[in-house]
Amino acid sequence: MQISVIGSGYVGLVAATCLAELGHDVVCVDSDSAKIAALNAGQTLIHEDCLQELLSRHRGTRLSFSTSIQEATRDAVVIFIAVGTPSADDGSVDLSCVESVAQSLNGSMNGYKVIVEKSTVPVYTSEWIQNALAPEGRAHNEFDVVSNPEFLREGTAVTDFLYPDRIVVGASTERAANIMREIYAPLIDGSYGQLPSAVPKPEKARLLPMYIETSPRSAELIKHASNAFLALKISFINAVASFCEAVGANIEEVCKGIGSDSRIGPEFLRAGIGYGGSCFPKDVAAFRAVTREFGFEFPLLDEIKRINEEQRIRFIRKVRGALRTIKGKRLAVLGLAFKDGTDDVRESPAIKVIEQLLQEKCQIIAFDPAAMDRARQMLGNRIRYAPDAYSAADGADALLILTEWKEFASLDLARIKRLLRSPIVLDGRNVFSQTEMAEAGLNYHSIGRPTLEVSQSLLKKGHIVR
Ligand code: UDX
Fold first, then answer.
1. Residue 126 · residue 220 · CB < 8 Å
2. Pocket of ligand 1 (CB under 6 A)
3. Same structural domain for residues 250 and 321?
4. Same-domain check for residues 40 and 62
5. Residue 131 pLDDT > 90, yes or no?
6. 339 and 275 share a domain?
């Protein structure tokens, strides 16, 4: 099928590349000519597993890039809109980019087309696009607007697209619904995964995705409600973790106990310094704004955000508690990205914690396996950057872990202990076990777990008590 994807950000680029991988002819459009030049030269510009490989496989054959919406959409049967939908000051979604795309599309409607909203947008946006595209009497049967939200996680976006839990399609006509089914046919029937060249299926992926057809409004709502629910799970467990600290319980044990109930499930119950990234903070705020717009009170959404912000404040308090005074202290920070597996620092809890520590006149030396360049664009030379975790720890008054990178868990703790000026580790992501930290002789403070002071925790012959 001839498809064009407007927008070459995370969602647009991954969707365009994966749609080409499914066998479609795709043109990806962006108004940023530097970005298009880089993509045409084969650079993905984002840190995403398998993306480079798929881009090299299809660029110049089934996948091309352009700066002209008119050119790219002329022959397309389906047009995915995947442009940015940033937050306005009141938390609502700024739809100006979507609007300007809709206006540009007005000039290229030369036959029936399906316009697919892929960007995360508030409920009723499909009607809004419909009206923008049919301003003065253009027959509605020249096009249909479909909502097809994405559920990609950064870091695993390609396999999330190719082996999804579910595909949600909100179409209001059978004609559009049929075309969408055709696009996703290799995923719906599992034939994509059988190809010898297919990207390998992740272990936890479903055998076949659920293909869910709804009204456009329901599809739009599914996206906001899904992200708000996942954020709720994180805030809930973080609040429980704080209570664990108050009563001396252990959040890891509590999570095991509640997550093993199949109705609750173990995912998204990792306590820490809160959620960040380009989706959860924005989508919770946008969901709140749209409910308000319709006169519906949903204070639970405010609470999700409040708890998330409080997690960072609590963590800073912990740093202060462990170091007594923090002004002028040198702190080694491991992790700048908003989560592991990505170089993205947007709304990163790590960056927010650093900003606060800088205000309190700490000196920061940081390391992240992928996000150093992006963090530098944000923090400049207000902090120092280390080439690896050990150099960051060298001479520091404490080590702070702010992103859940798996590689941090295999650090040589004895070496870290030797390098630190004081043997203090504050783990905002519960990357380490308390036992291994105590064995290494490090005073370890984490989230929702009792703090082990080394001197009290070592028994004769190196045995550890809790
Ligand atoms: C999220 C959704 O998962 C995805 O479906 C949607 O399309 C886009 O938003 P993403 O932003 O890539 O994906 O990150 P995700 O893996 O969901 O993590 C978001 C944040 O929550 C990160 O800061 C992460 O550190 C934090 N998190 C996640 C926790 O603090 N605890 C958890 O248990 C899980």
1. yes
2. 150-154, 227, 230, 234, 268-270, 272, 275-277, 279-280, 338-339, 404
3. no
4. yes
5. no
6. no
Residue 448 is assigned to a structural domain of this protein: yes
CA dihedral 77, 80, 83, 89 (to 10 degrees): 120
Residue 465: pLDDT over 70: no
Q: Using the mean position of ligand 1's atoms as its centre, give its distance from the Cα of residue 358 in Å.
A: 26
* Residue 427, in any domain of the structure: yes
Number of Cβ atoms within 10 Å of the Cβ of 84: 15
Instruction: Answer yes or no: do 74 and 30 share one domain.
Output: yes
How far, in Å, is the centroid of ligand 1 from the Cα of 228? 11
Distance 269 CA to ligand 1 centre (A): 11
Query: Among 43-57, 122-136, 444-458, whose mean pLDDT is lowest?
Result: 444-458
The DSSP element (H or E) to which 319 belongs, if any, is helix 299-323
Residue 71 predicted with pLDDT over 70? yes
Q: Is 58 a domain residue?
A: yes
Q: What is the C-alpha to C-alpha distance for residues 424 and 249, in angstroms, rounded to an integer?
A: 22
322 has pLDDT over 50: yes
- Residue 250's CATH number: 1.10.1040.10
Q: Are residues 112 and 164 in the same domain?
A: yes
Give the separation between CA 406 and CA 385, rounded to whole angstroms: 20
Is 279 marked active-site?
yes
Of 50, 255, 279, 362, which one is the catalytic site residue? 279
The residue whose two tokens read 């010898």 is: 196
Flag whether pLDDT at 140 surpasses 70: no
Whether residues 287 and 159 fall in one domain: no
The pTM of this model reads 0.93
Domain with 282, as residue range(s), is 237-306
Same domain membership, residue 72 and residue 50: yes
Each residue's pLDDT tens digit, 143-180: 999 999 999 999 999 999 999 999 999 999 999 999 99
